[in-house]
Write a structure and sequence with these properties.
It is a single chain. The chain has 243 residues and is an alpha+beta fold. Helices cover 38% and strands 18% of the residues. Strands 3-2-1-6-5-4 form a 6-stranded antiparallel β-sheet. A 3-stranded antiparallel β-sheet has the order 7-8-9. Helix 2 packs antiparallel against helix 5 (141-171). The mean pLDDT is 87.
């Protein structure tokens, strides 16, 4: 069985994949919804969100199979990440690249494979959204269009994940390199390296690019401004009594 050659930008591609910090994570509804839609739209028994790691393909989301990963050498997706275009193999038993592949000769007996690359804005392809059938066939133009749209949505989720991780890390990035924040157990002020106590929003603003707006939560309104709450309740009761 011929192995897929490594992409020329393999180091950058693996770095982009690792930035998402998603390998080995638990199932998530957002990704599972996408693979379910893919399987339904394409009338396919199997749909996968496959991420191509150094020596394996790992499934963040899967429909129709129980395995969590396979060796990269077995991976159809390792071939698909070489191009921005979808890789559609109508019958794997007729393709010299896959005819003796264990996933073709054994379970899940792949015949149709249609992989749509997960490509970021830097043209780095970290994996695919794919559908698989156990019988030879083609996808329709409409099915391909939907799969392309779903693949773009997966990438959007991945980018949002990366931004969220970066934002969380910015909370814990300090000029002195210390990633612990000392806070008062009572007033919740934070203490800097000079021993000065300040409100947490000021503390984070000085050490990150975060900006803050301020309001008053419901519990604080009730505790500190009961007269305002009484006025609001009276207004609500008046409106409720109006015909």
């Amino acid at each position: 069985m011929p192995s897929s050659l490594l992409p020329e930008n393999e180091a950058e591609r693996i770095n982009a994949l690792n930035e998402y910090r998603i390998l080995g994570t638990s199932p998530e509804q957002s990704y599972d919804d996408i693979t379910k839609i893919a399987a339904t739209v394409c009338s396919a028994p199997i749909a996968l969100m496959s991420l191509v790691d150094v020596d394996r393909q790992w499934f963040k989301s899967k429909v129709g199979v129980d395995i969590q990963e396979t060796p990269r050498d077995w991976s159809f997706c390792a071939h698909a990440i070489h191009s921005s275009d979808p890789l559609v193999v109508p019958d794997a038993t007729m393709d010299s690249r896959f005819i003796d592949n264990p996933l073709v000769c054994g379970d899940p007996q792949i015949r149709l494979y249609a992989g749509f690359p997960l490509e970021n804005s830097a043209s780095l392809r970290v994996g695919t959204l794919c559908v698989i059938d156990r019988r030879p066939r083609y996808l329709t133009d409409r099915e391909c269009d939907v799969m392309k749209a779903l693949a773009r949505q997966v990438v959007a989720f991945l980018e949002l994940r990366k931004k969220s991780i970066n934002l969380i890390e910015s909370f814990c990035t300090h000029s002195g390199g210390n990633r612990m924040i000392s806070t008062c157990s009572y007033c919740r002020k934070a203490q800097d390296q000079n021993g000065e106590w300040m409100h947490l929003d000021k503390y984070l603003s000085q050490r990150s690019s975060l900006k803050f707006t301020h309001g008053i939560c419901d519990s604080c309104i009730e505790q500190h401004f009961p007269e305002v709450l009484d006025v609001w309740r009276s207004e609500d009761e008046l409106k409720a009594s109006e015909p």
